Amino acid sequence: PCDVWSVGCIIFEYYMGFTLFQTHDNREHLAMMERILGPIPSRMIRKTRKQKYFYHGHLDWDENTSAGRYVRENCKPLRRYLSSEAEEHHRLFDLLEGMLEYEPTKRLALSEALKHPFFSVLQLQPAPKAWDSNRDISR
């Protein structure tokens, strides 16, 4: 499941041209995740070993700091990054939402992601033979 998350982040980067979570700070990373993907599920907050990042079941994050303002101004809900209203763009973001699901048990497996409607336009056909072994080339 974590590999699928990483692939989702990479696909987003290919689409937009920049990384989804541009930070090395753990707390800021969590704030970006909440801003882009919505609140972290309370069950996950209760089970984390990183309780220092949370207070009363919510991310302990001050939006009035320079980092807080940066996240507020530069991160937006995932679907707001759509650059087109075309159907294939909506299918891509549906795929990304499945790949970036917080809950690992609800996140798309790689095999499921590959069967997603976004990829349906890629009709898998047998590769053409590069070499026909019955052909006589001796002349």
TrEMBL record:
A Gene Ontology term for the protein's cellular component: nucleus
Keyword ATP-binding: yes
Documented EC number(s): 2.7.12.1
Enzyme class: transferase
Molecular function as annotated in GO: ATP binding; protein serine/threonine kinase activity; protein serine/threonine/tyrosine kinase activity; protein tyrosine kinase activity
UniProt cross-references to InterPro entries, sorted A to Z: CLK_kinases, Kinase-like_dom_sf, Prot_kinase_dom
GO BP terms, alphabetized: regulation of RNA splicing
Entry keyword Acyltransferase: no
Annotated ranges, domain Protein kinase: 1-119
Keywords: ATP-binding, Kinase, Nucleotide-binding, Serine/threonine-protein kinase, Transferase
PANTHER family, sorted: DUAL SPECIFICITY PROTEIN KINASE CLK2, SERINE/THREONINE-PROTEIN KINASE DOA-RELATED
Similarity comment: family membership: Belongs to the protein kinase superfamily. CMGC Ser/Thr protein kinase family. Lammer subfamily.
Protein name: dual-specificity kinase
Organism of provenance: Micrurus lemniscatus lemniscatus
